[in-house]
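Changelog-adjacent note: as of this version, every example in the card shows the full chain rather than a window. The one below runs 79 residues end to end.
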Amino acid sequence: MSEPRDYLEMSFRSIQCFANDGRLDVQELGSLLAIAERDGVIDDNEIRVLKNIVARIKPEEIDAPMQDKIAQVMQKIGA
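Full-length structure tokens:
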């Protein structure tokens, strides 16, 4: 059985999201989380990628919905 490559797709899509308008919105973060969850397990590579993505979000870009989504992501990855 081959190693899951969802983290590569997440990385590529996050680059597209940030390149689109320079920021990540709630729906984009949700779609990245959905990629990590689609096989039922968020593995170490996916956790690493999600942490890196969240770290790139600037404080001034965090409104209430984004704060809630970030909290949801962090809870799911155990951070």
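Structural remarks: Residues 6-77 form one domain.
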